[in-house]
Design goal:
Blueprint lengths: L11 E3 L9 E4 L1 H10 L7 E5 L4 E11 L2 E11 L6 E7 L5 H12 L3 E5 L10 H21 L14 H10 L2 E5 L17 E6 L7 H9 L3 E3 L8 H14 L5
Parallel strand pairs: 1-3, 6-7, 6-9, 8-9, 8-10
Antiparallel strand pairs: 2-5, 3-4, 4-5
């Protein structure tokens, strides 16, 4: 190895599904502005494009105008979904920590982040406020996926109730609830090679006994992350990293 510093690849831009089928791709709107004005791409430079659903095109800049960049497609490939799939159920954090949690988990490699209004969550998503919060989570995931060069953008579904989580736990290959007082360490739990691994992260006040009982009856197991207690906004990314190091994905 010549260097311990990773070499950054070409920038990655997002287009709508179906736009990768042509011989050229035109970046316009916010993506075009970012490419032309912020990144200042020039003719002949490399740039990659994804549809966020596994489609990845390696391109070269053909032309640049104000807030518009035309790319010539050199090659196009479909990147399979990673296995096993990692889903994090994230209890709603307060304020900007919510976007931080989504950003970190996206960069690490989480495939889906499910918002959860747990009993002890201080934040509540209601009406238009909830719609705006969900939109911010999705926008954060998109931008973090581009920054980390992921051809698959994490899914951010609508908030899940406790019964929803019980159904998810019952169908997943493995469901893990992070608990500081759990006897089993996360680093030693048996993991499936395929299917879905669900990781449930509670709020700052912790998951209630009734919630824990419901999840346990659905097949979830509890595990501790380590000797320290992380905030809810960072626990998901740290725990996902532990899981990923024990799979073929890392």
């Amino acid at each position: 190895m010549d260097s311990l510093v990773p070499v950054a690849g070409p920038p990655l831009f997002l287009v709508a599904r179906g736009d990768l089928a042509a011989d050229s791709v035109t970046l316009s709107g916010p993506e075009g502005h970012h490419a032309a004005t912020v990144r200042r791409l020039r003719q002949g430079e490399r740039a990659d494009v994804t549809d966020g659903a596994g489609g990845l095109a390696e391109c070269v800049v053909a032309a640049v105008a104000k807030d518009t960049v035309v790319l010539t497609v050199r090659s196009l490939r479909a990147v399979p979904r990673p296995e096993p799939r990692i889903t994090v159920v994230q209890a709603l954090p307060k304020g900007e920590r919510a976007e931080l949690a989504v950003e970190l988990m996206t960069e690490v490699g989480v495939d889906s982040v499910v918002p959860w209004p747990a009993e002890r969550s201080v934040t509540r998503w209601q009406g238009e406020r909830g719609d705006r919060s969900l939109a911010r989570w999705r926008a954060t995931a998109r931008e973090a996926a581009k920054q980390s060069r992921r051809p698959w953008i994490p899914e951010i579904p609508a908030p899940a109730s406790l019964p929803d989580l019980a159904k998810l736990a019952a169908t997943a290959a493995r469901t893990i609830v992070l608990e500081a007082d759990a006897t089993s360490p996360l680093s030693r739990l048996p993991l499936p090679e395929a299917g879905e691994i669900v990781l449930i992260v509670g709020p700052e006040g912790g998951i209630t006994l009734s919630e824990r009982a419901t999840l346990a009856s659905a097949g979830a197991v509890e595990a501790r992350l380590g000797p320290t207690v992380l905030r809810t906004s960072t626990a998901g990314a740290a725990a996902a990293a532990v899981l990923l190091t024990r799979t073929a994905r890392w």
